[in-house]
Design goal:
heterodimer, A: about 260 residues, TIM Barrel, five-stranded parallel β-sheet, B: about 70 residues, Ubiquitin-like (UB roll), five-stranded mixed β-sheet, 1 helix, about 10% helix, about 40% strand
């Protein structure tokens, strides 16, 4: 069985989404995106630097190949997130949005109450909302119930590369999900991405681990393979874990009397 | 003398402010295809930049996409 990932009616072949922050150059970013095989990339909205108005990273992204997923990073409450969402829609002329509300700059953990509040407004306004949340099964359920297109629980704090610290909570989220579950934030190595996919996550979103690797292009390729491997392993079905040995070779016909 | 508040900072014009949002972007050498704008808190669609009249004291936000996760 090879089922496709479908979010809000759009089909994705790749289950790896890529963030575009922290790359050393637009060229490396573009090559890493290409190498990852992704079909969706996140971007942020910021004020134009009036002293340096020519800088335009969007020119490096082929919008025929990659769906832009603007985020609301920097929003500290629902009002700021809604404002950024509307600006993003005006800028992209599409209504996909990664909703993130992070009032605390040290851990950048998402605010569940403000996120839910913003999601309610944005879903009503016709946005395709992909909310970034802590791995909270109750919140995930509330969000899917009000009509978000996915839920995106964090593996560990943004950019921390700590991997799946929230594994057991994400397992609960997956078990009750009616929308795709995208593990977002904190995935530091391809093995973490594979582990998330083996658990039954629908996709992963990776930025820092690729963008700040010594060789981002090679790391993007590694993540591509890991996500595919993890997905295939999930489909294949785990052989399970036992507490004692279970011989792989026959326990009969030994060369002894 | 006239003032526009652009991205949180006052920009002073000797005589008058640029007549339209489009004229302001040309003056600042900002490619209009790459930005989204708010005037006094209201989002201006790109196809209305040319007929959005600016006046002394208006607050302008010029925003664009940057790399982000």
């Amino acid at each position: 069985m090879k089922d496709k990932l479908i979010i809000a009616g759009k089909e994705f072949s790749s289950r790896l989404f890529i963030g575009t922050g922290k790359y050393s150059s637009n060229k490396i970013m573009a090559q890493s995106i290409e190498a990852s095989g992704t079909e969706m990339v996140t971007v942020a909205l910021r004020r134009v630097d009036i002293q340096n108005p020519q800088d335009n990273m969007l020119a490096a992204i082929d919008r025929q190949k990659y769906l832009l997923l603007p985020n609301t990073s920097g929003a500290r409450n629902a009002d700021e997130a809604v404002r950024l969402a509307r600006l993003a829609r005006a800028a992209t002329e599409i209504n996909w949005l990664k909703l993130e509300v992070t009032p605390d700059p040290y851990y950048l953990l998402p605010d569940p109450i403000e996120t839910l509040k913003a999601a309610e407004i944005l879903v009503k306004e016709g946005f395709v909302v992909l909310p970034y949340i802590n791995a909270d099964p109750v919140l995930a359920k509330k969000l899917q119930d009000i009509g978000t297109a996915t839920v995106m629980p964090l593996a560990s704090p943004i950019g921390s590369n700590q991997g799946l610290k929230t594994k057991s909570a994400i397992e609960i989220i997956i078990s009750q999900a009616t929308v795709p579950v995208v593990v977002d934030a904190g995935i530091g190595m391809p093995s973490h991405a594979a582990e998330a996919m083996e658990m039954g996550a629908d996709a992963v979103l990776v930025n820092t681990a690729i963008a700040t690797a010594n060789d981002p292009i090679k790391m993007a390729q590694a993540f591509k393979k890991a996500v595919q491997a993890g997905k295939e392993a999930f489909e294949a079905g785990s052989a399970g874990i036992k507490n004692q040995a279970d011989a792989s070779s026959p326990l009969t016909g030994f060369l002894r009397d | 003398m006239a003032v526009l508040k652009i991205n949180g900072e006052d920009k002073i014009f000797e005589n008058a402010v640029p007549s339209t949002l489009k004229a302001l972007l040309e003056l600042l050498k900002v490619d209009e295809a790459t930005v989204v704008a708010e005037v006094n808190g209201q989002i201006i669609p790109r196809n209305s930049f040319y007929n959005t009249i600016l006046k002394d004291g208006h607050k302008i936000e010029l925003i664009r996409f940057v790399g982000g996760g």
